[in-house]
Design a protein that fits this description.
Length: about 725
């Protein structure tokens, strides 16, 4: 007997070997992206028609959404008074006639008058019109001559010229042909049993041709689990490989020993405040990573204002303490420069032994490198870096250019990871000329839900700063929906300014064009200067300004020489001016939750009470309304992240990083949260110390099948 058929086998067989697939159908399948039998088997139904829920026309309840099964008895079309095309079809079942009216769907006339159309499934809300039951723009699926309690409806494009039953028949053919040998199941029995999952073969049968909706759900669960398991296996494997195959640096974490004994302790003791419990836990977690010979690869998640900077500086100084260097990479120049300022201020006069100098010591030296750094300064920074007299280098992408050579890079902190790609992380990891790999700490102020973090950052360990420093008064958030309410916002700005505080005004986001966005910011400035905020010192900050001008404006604002900063979203991340207490966001409905949360985080950073005003009319989309209401309701970033995930689905968190992965066909990070966690646990278990997949060759082969290029390249490298 031959071995069961694997996914790899199926991926190697073309659909042209199916009966009924000639050159024309082949072309149609190709349009749908279906070339192999595996593509076909994983082309899952989009919807199911469940005959057990069928309603009869005569007894269908008014105002309810119902499913009607029937046949077309007549079709006609005409134009309405305002020029719209209106197609009217009468559909009949054993009990009566239902009138279906379609607006702006001229093609329906052709579709519904086809002689071979057969049975139709109509789904919609029953209304009464001229004493007749009718539906407006119902969902229509062609059942044709298909029987069975549940009928699958496949996603198709008109261009393919294929019908949903053709696809269904081919799938059935594949499953029939697989029946003898069976479809291999790579997941160990024990795992399946403990999670209550059905066998893969039965899952494929059940998702394509379920006997009941319950059958479909259990089948779907199994296939969802498989998708998530493959993803988690690749992430966990990547993490283990990194650990196994790279030579890390054993950092000097104690209070004694190293090149500069007690440096970190001295720094922490010199802070004007006590660390929060969360900061202490984070530092301890990071320290234990740093002390290991395996490179750290950790994500530090913390809401805006949770105090990530101190944690990061402690890690950077740990490198310095052991005679190495630290690097901090930020996504924008404004942020890099600001980090430079705040890290220098934090470190203050912490100094290190330097027997070669007159005093026998020198301050910890912090260098800055961005695209703004002028040639001469750049040469100096690079030389000092190579020789080791710069201890900590802060900058933008400029840090990872080839010319940048560290003497000995020990710890890398990457701020706002979502703006950087995996390649950039890899570039920093290989910055040392010997083969040692620095420890990497990724910081993000955009909280993401736990299960999403497991997926998007699944190859990182995660530390969460889940506590804000004491003494923060929560920010009060308002939604100004009328012009009267907007006027209150400007009053608030004026009164806060006269009390000695400062404000931000964020201008409408214009996705299509930065130029338009700048124009609108300039216009806003003029208007506010003339009317609402006349007499106040206003400054403008936008993405098209020269770097020097940006820097100057930021400095003026920081120094209190400007009362109000009118800006585009360049201030979104990380800008830290504790004296600013009001954030006004214009056309707030255009921003996503994460952005709004970031923007709001710019105020309430000092001891004084902070305010955030979201300006948007009450006539916004339902989603925008949900976003604004969530912002008013809570300041908890993790709660907002859950709302965001619910509203927008995985697009929010997957983003760039997951673009190449197309293996998540069925699984949804939102709906299938529970499965994400289970798949993660199984993956960790199966991979063990990193060699686990060798005992599960089928899973290994499947992984190779679905990995994207980036992952593949990665596996080759290691
Ligand atoms: P994040 O980067 O996480 O948004 P920061 O590191 O910029 O937060 O810190 C926000 C503010 O809180 C800074 O002004 C910082 O000085 C202050 N801060 C940080 N940790 C503490 C603490 N333990 N106690 C009091 N203030 C703190
Ligand atoms: Mg920060």
């Amino acid at each position: 007997m031959k071995a069961p058929i694997t996914l790899t086998d199926l991926a190697g067989m073309g659909v042209s070997r199916l009966q009924g697939v000639g050159p024309k159908k082949l072309k149609g399948l190709e349009i749908l992206g279906i070339e192999s039998l595996l593509d076909l088997l994983t082309h899952y139904p989009r919807r199911y028609i469940d005959r057990t829920r069928e309603a009869k026309i005569a007894s269908s309840a008014l105002g309810e959404e119902v499913l009607i099964l029937g046949e077309v008895s007549s079709v006609s079309s005409r134009r309405t008074r305002n020029g719209k095309v209106m197609v009217v079809a009468d559909v009949r079942d054993a009990t009566g006639t239902l009138r279906c009216t379609f607006f702006n769907q001229a093609w329906r006339e052709h579709q519904l008058s086809s002689p071979h159309i057969g049975e139709l499934a109509i789904f919609g809300k029953i209304e009464m019109f001229n004493a007749k039951r009718q539906m407006t723009n119902p969902v229509v699926d062609l059942v044709g001559t298909r029987t069975g309690k549940i009928v699958s409806v496949y996603p198709l494009s008109e261009k393919s010229g294929l019908s949903t039953w053709e696809v269904g028949d081919w799938v059935a053919q594949v499953l029939r042909r697989c029946a003898d040998r069976g479809i291999a199941d790579p997941v160990p029995e024990t795992v399946l049993r403990s999670l209550g999952l059905v066998a893969r073969q039965s899952a494929f049968a059940g998702i394509h041709a379920p006997e009941s909706m319950g059958h479909m759900v259990t089948s779907r669960d199994r296939l969802v689990f498989d998708e998530l398991l493959r993803l988690q296996l690749s992430l966990v494997q990547r993490q283990r490989d990194l650990e196994r195959n790279s030579l890390g640096i054993v950092q000097q974490v104690g209070d004694s020993g190293g090149a500069v004994p007690g440096l970190v302790r001295f720094f922490l003791d010199s802070l004007p405040y006590e660390l929060t419990g969360a900061q202490q836990r984070a530092i301890a977690e990071i320290d234990s990573d740093l002390a290991r010979p395996i490179p750290m690869h950790r994500l530090l998640q913390g809401d805006v204002g949770s105090g990530k900077t101190v944690v990061a500086v402690s890690a950077l100084l740990t490198a310095v303490q052991g005679g190495h260097q630290g690097a901090l990479m930020a996504p924008t120049e404004v942020l890099a420069e600001q980090h430079g300022t705040s890290v220098r201020a934090l470190i203050g006069d912490v100094s290190i032994d330097a027997p070669e100098t007159l005093l026998g010591s020198r301050p910890v030296s912090v260098g800055l490198l961005t695209n703004r750094t002028r040639a001469a300064e750049r040469r100096r920074v690079l030389a000092n870096l190579a020789e080791g007299s710069i201890d900590i280098l802060i900058g933008t992408h400029a840090l990872i250019q080839d010319a940048v050579q560290f003497n000995s890079l020990g710890v890398v902190v990457i701020d706002e990871q979502h703006r950087f790609g995996v390649e950039q992380r890899a570039a920093l990891r290989s910055a040392n000329s010997d083969s040692t790999v620095p420890d990497v700490l990724v910081m993000t102020a955009t909280p993401i839900p736990r299960t999403a973090a497991m997926t998007v950052y699944g190859d990182l360990d995660v530390t969460v700063l889940d506590e804000l420093p004491p003494g923060r008064t929560p920010i009060e958030t308002m939604w100004a929906a009328s012009s009267a309410e907007e006027e209150t916002a400007w009053e608030l700005v004026r009164s806060q300014v006269s009390a000695g505080y400062q404000s931000y005004v964020v201008c409408p986001l214009i996705e299509e064009s930065e130029k338009l966005e700048v124009a609108s910011a300039e216009e806003t400035l003029e208007r506010l200067a003339a009317v609402e905020l006349s007499g106040l010192r206003l400054g403008l900050l936008h993405g098209r300004m020269a770097s020097d001008d940006k820097q100057l404006t930021m400095e003026q604002f920081r120094a209190g020489k400007l009362d109000v900063l009118i800006a585009t979203t360049v201030i979104e991340v990380g800008v830290d001016v504790p004296n600013a207490t009001v954030m006004v966001i214009l056309d707030a409905d255009r921003f996503g939750i994460a952005q709004l949360h970031q923007l709001r985080g710019r105020v309430g950073r000092g001891g004084a009470r902070g305010f955030c005003v979201l300006v948007a009319t009450s006539e916004v989309t339902a989603d925008a309304q949900a976003r604004l209401e969530a912002m008013v309701r809570t300041t908890d970033g993790f709660e907002l992240a859950e709302v965001d995930l619910d509203l927008r689905g995985e697009g929010t968190v997957m983003g760039e990083r997951q673009k190449g992965r197309n293996d998540l066909q069925l699984a949804s990070l939102r709906r299938d949260r529970a499965w994400v966690e289970k798949a993660r646990a199984v993956a960790v278990d199966l991979i063990g110390d990193g060699s686990g997949l060798e005992q599960h060759p089928l899973l290994g082969a499947e992984l190779a099948l679905v990995l994207d290029d980036e992952d593949r390249e990665f596996l080759h490298k290691s």
